[in-house]
């Protein structure tokens, strides 16, 4: 499925300064029963966001109207655990286009890149600066510049660069996905398969 | 140039290398289940394409299936719908499908090896992070997302940069009651839950060489819990003895030819790893977790660490202990528990049931404990019956359920209630993993059995001594 192009995103951000946020928190397994990719945003962080009677938990950041934006900022080791792409879908479907952390779990990072959510890995120090900037002003805007591979806290002008491989960068900039690429080299793959017995 | 085991298998599957980008990696075998595949099949439908190699694809139902009355229609509508979608997709694309009630049905990572789908030197993927299990056979096996499931269905390839390599060596002899699960929980407790992120692990040394295939599968299964994409162990006679004569493994001359290749599957003696770590077997105790990630494990006789001793931030650590309603410095031994879960792709194999039975034999299930014993597959279930283990379980007041993922992720009705404590042989103790508000203590089948008969966290060595005395 081709996705939105990503170029420069300037937005306020939602802070979640917790480490090791696992995919069972991002979307609990009982919400994985759909056969279509629809409505996962409603259950993003379900058990942190809602009580068992479905009333919102006041203190959770997504229920606090002073925080909003298309960027989610999480603590170290964001997205650990299960390979469920539903976690990335939930992040996207809720309205986030970028997740910032000082460290990402492997599969979650990969899943994000495959659906058009940009994972931006920054240093622990820079992550701390972002959290502090949002704490002092929840409307603080953050600029994520994919062509230049930089992230800037606009209020303070503090900036850091981030890494992404050229192939994925081009995919994100153009809204291409891997299947388009693979289908284009199908003949090479079939030839390879002939020499690779079961 | 000298190569690691991982290099040998990965490099031989690269269809194309993209400069400053990923490798196009050919996938030998693709396992499919009901939860992470429907959107991928939908993608194929939207593109108007078919599965490229159905003979390299295998489908089973396991994640959301009930563990009782599997002969009846599945009550939960959404689950039933997902199961139906898998059955229809498998049929439409001529993929072997082992649904509910099929003799080969079971947890995807249990039935792959059981049926010989898993072989050394292969690349194996599945939309499930515990696909790392199959690395026990010297395969490169790892979990993928649904977009990648669609890639493999449509082109038999994925696109990923090659991970870095890490070797974890453990020499020496394991102490009494220290199982493969304890070895894995110990490693994760030392490396933390993100300590191997970005790496593919090879397990080496005496401890793994002496391990059964079931034990190796338990260890490789848990590789993902330290952040590694996967883990693998060089194949040897233990491996070959296990896979020989299984349905999908090569036969006759093909077997001999395969053996020639499989015998080359070990890291060259001068191969260089990006990271090398070693531990001493004698330092490992029976383990139990006290927190909300698998890295929060300790020897069962130890106290819960203080926040200062931890790598994670104090706020995260306190949040975790508060969820568990535990305090720094407390002992785990003696803590009352409510549920015991034996099963999952981590510990749902015949050896795990043998271990459990060895402790509970001649004892009774504690009255305050609800126990869910769920075999990993129908073949495991058959073996439990054939070996007389079912009789031992029943005499002690336990019931055996039907196969599936069950309470490991609680997608079906097997949910631990809020606030209750479960000693679980599964792989994740995340908040709410086993049901909203559930509190999970990960441990080996021996520790689970000891808890099941005493109703509290108990060192299995105490019960074993009594048996021996």
From TrEMBL, chain A:
Alphabetical UniProt keywords: Amino-acid biosynthesis, Branched-chain amino acid biosynthesis, Leucine biosynthesis, Lyase
Domain Aconitase A/isopropylmalate dehydratase small subunit swivel, first and last residues per copy: 6-124
Record field: catalytic activity: (2R,3S)-3-isopropylmalate = (2S)-2-isopropylmalate
GO cellular component, one term: 3-isopropylmalate dehydratase complex
Top-tier EC class: lyase
Cited InterPro entries: 3-IsopropMal_deHydase_ssu, Aconitase/3IPM_dehydase_swvl, AconitaseA/IPMdHydase_ssu_swvl, IPMI_Swivel, LeuD
SUPFAM superfamilies attached to this UniProt entry: LeuD/IlvD-like
UniProt GO BP: L-leucine biosynthetic process
Enzyme Commission designation: 4.2.1.33
Presence of keyword Acetylation: no
Molecular-function GO terms, alphabetical: 3-isopropylmalate dehydratase activity
Pathway linked to the protein: Amino-acid biosynthesis; L-leucine biosynthesis; L-leucine from 3-methyl-2-oxobutanoate: step 2/4
Function: Catalyzes the isomerization between 2-isopropylmalate and 3-isopropylmalate, via the formation of 2-isopropylmaleate.
Subunit text: Heterodimer of LeuC and LeuD.
Family, similarity comment: Belongs to the LeuD family. LeuD type 1 subfamily.
Name this protein carries in UniProt: 3-isopropylmalate dehydratase small subunit
TrEMBL record, chain B:
Molecular function terms from GO: 3-isopropylmalate dehydratase activity; 4 iron, 4 sulfur cluster binding; metal ion binding
Residues annotated as binding [4Fe-4S] cluster: 345, 405, 408
Listed EC numbers: 4.2.1.33
Stored InterPro entries: 3-IsopropMal_deHydase_lsu, Acnase/IPM_dHydase_lsu_aba_1/3, Acoase/IPM_deHydtase_lsu_aba, Aconitase_4Fe-4S_BS, Aconitase_4Fe-4S_dom, IPM_dehydratase_rel_enz, IPMI_cat
Note on how the cofactor is bound: Binds 1 [4Fe-4S] cluster per subunit.
Superkingdom, taxonomy of origin: Bacteria
Catalytic activity line of the entry: (2R,3S)-3-isopropylmalate = (2S)-2-isopropylmalate
Keyword 4Fe-4S assigned: yes
GO biological process, one term: L-leucine biosynthetic process
Enzyme class: lyase
Ranges for domain Aconitase/3-isopropylmalate dehydratase large subunit alpha/beta/alpha: 7-455
Annotated metabolic or biological route of this protein: Amino-acid biosynthesis; L-leucine biosynthesis; L-leucine from 3-methyl-2-oxobutanoate: step 2/4
Required cofactor names: [4Fe-4S] cluster
Keywords in alphabetical order: 4Fe-4S, Amino-acid biosynthesis, Branched-chain amino acid biosynthesis, Iron, Iron-sulfur, Leucine biosynthesis, Lyase, Metal-binding
Function according to Swiss-Prot or TrEMBL: Catalyzes the isomerization between 2-isopropylmalate and 3-isopropylmalate, via the formation of 2-isopropylmaleate.
Subunit-structure text: Heterodimer of LeuC and LeuD.
Protein name: 3-isopropylmalate dehydratase large subunit
Organism expressing this protein natively: Flagellimonas meridianipacifica
Organism placement in taxonomy: Bacteria, Pseudomonadati, Bacteroidota, Flavobacteriia, Flavobacteriales
């Amino acid at each position: 499925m081709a996705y939105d192009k990503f170029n420069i995103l300037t937005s306020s951000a939602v802070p979640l300064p917790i480490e090791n946020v696992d995919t069972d928190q991002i979307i609990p397994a009982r919400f994985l029963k759909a056969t279509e990719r629809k409505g996962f945003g409603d259950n993003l962080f379900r058990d942190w966001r809602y009580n068992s009677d479905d009333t919102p938990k006041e203190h959770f950041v997504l229920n606090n109207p002073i925080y909003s934006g298309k960027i989610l900022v999480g603590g170290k080791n964001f997205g650990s655990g299960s390979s469920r792409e539903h976690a990335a879908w939930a992040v996207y479907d809720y309205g986030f286009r970028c997740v910032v952390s000082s460290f990402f779990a492997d599969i979650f990072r990969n899943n994000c890149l495959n659906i058009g959510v940009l994972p931006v890995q920054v240093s622990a120090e820079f992550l701390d600066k972002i959290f502090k900037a949002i704490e002092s002003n929840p409307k603080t805007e953050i600029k994520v510049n994919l062509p230049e591979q930089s992230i800037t806290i606009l209020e303070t002008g503090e900036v850091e660069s981030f890494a992404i491989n050229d192939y994925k960068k081009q995919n994100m900039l153009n809204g291409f996905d891997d299947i388009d690429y693979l289908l284009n080299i199908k003949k090479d793959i079939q030839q390879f398969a002939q020499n690779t017995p079961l | 140039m000298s190569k690691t085991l991982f290099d040998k298998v990965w490099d031989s599957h690269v269809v194309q290398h993209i400069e400053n980008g990923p490798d196009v990696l050919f996938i030998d075998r693709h396992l499919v289940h009901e939860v992470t595949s429907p959107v991928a099949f939908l993608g194929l439908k939207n593109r108007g394409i078919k599965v490229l190699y159905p003979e390299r694809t295998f489908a089973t139902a396991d994640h959301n299936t009930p563990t009782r009355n599997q002969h009846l229609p599945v009550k939960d509508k959404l689950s039933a719908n997902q199961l139906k979608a898998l059955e229809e997709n498998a049929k439409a694309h001529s993929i072997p499908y082992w649904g509910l009630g099929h003799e080969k049905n079971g947890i995807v990572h249990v039935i792959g090896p059981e049926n010989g789908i898993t072989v050394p030197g292969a690349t194996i993927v599945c939309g499930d992070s515990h696909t790392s299990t199959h690395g026990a056979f010297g395969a490169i096996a790892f979990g993928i997302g649904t977009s990648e499931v669609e890639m493999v269905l449509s082109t038999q390839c994925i696109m990923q940069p090659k991970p870095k390599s890490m070797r974890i060596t453990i020499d020496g002899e394991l102490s009494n009651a220290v199982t493969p699960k304890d070895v894995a929980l110990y490693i994760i407790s030392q490396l933390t839950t993100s300590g191997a992120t970005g790496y593919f692990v090879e397990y080496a040394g005496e401890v793994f060489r002496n391990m059964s295939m079931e034990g190796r599968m338990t260890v490789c299964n848990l590789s993902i819990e330290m952040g590694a994409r996967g883990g693998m162990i060089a194949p040897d006679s233990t491996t070959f003895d296990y896979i020989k004569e299984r349905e999908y493994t090569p036969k006759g001359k093909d077997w001999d030819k395969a053996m020639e290749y499989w015998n080359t599957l070990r890291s060259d003696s001068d191969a260089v790893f990006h990271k090398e770590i070693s531990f001493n077997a004698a330092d490992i105790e029976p383990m139990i977790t006290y927190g909300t990630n698998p890295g929060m494990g300790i020897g069962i006789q130890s106290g819960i660490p203080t926040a200062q001793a931890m790598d994670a931030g104090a706020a995260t650590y306190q949040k975790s202990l508060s969820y568990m309603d535990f305090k720094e410095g407390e002992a785990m031994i003696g803590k009352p528990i409510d549920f015991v879960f034996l099963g999952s792709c981590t510990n749902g194999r015949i050896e795990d049931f043998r271990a459990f039975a060895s402790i509970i034999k001649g004892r009774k299930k504690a009255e305050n404990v609800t126990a869910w014993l769920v075999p990993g597959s129908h073949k495991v279930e058959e073996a439990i019956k054939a070996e007389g283990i079912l009789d031992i379980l029943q005499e002690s007041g336990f019931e055996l359920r039907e196969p599936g993922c069950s309470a490991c992720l609680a997608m079906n009705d097997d949910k631990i209630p809020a606030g209750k404590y479960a000693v679980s042989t599964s792989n994740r103790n995340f908040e709410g993993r086993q049901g909203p508000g559930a509190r999970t203590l990960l441990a080996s089948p021996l520790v689970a059995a000891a808890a099941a008969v005493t109703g509290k966290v108990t060192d299995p060595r105490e019960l074993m001594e009594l048996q021996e005395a």
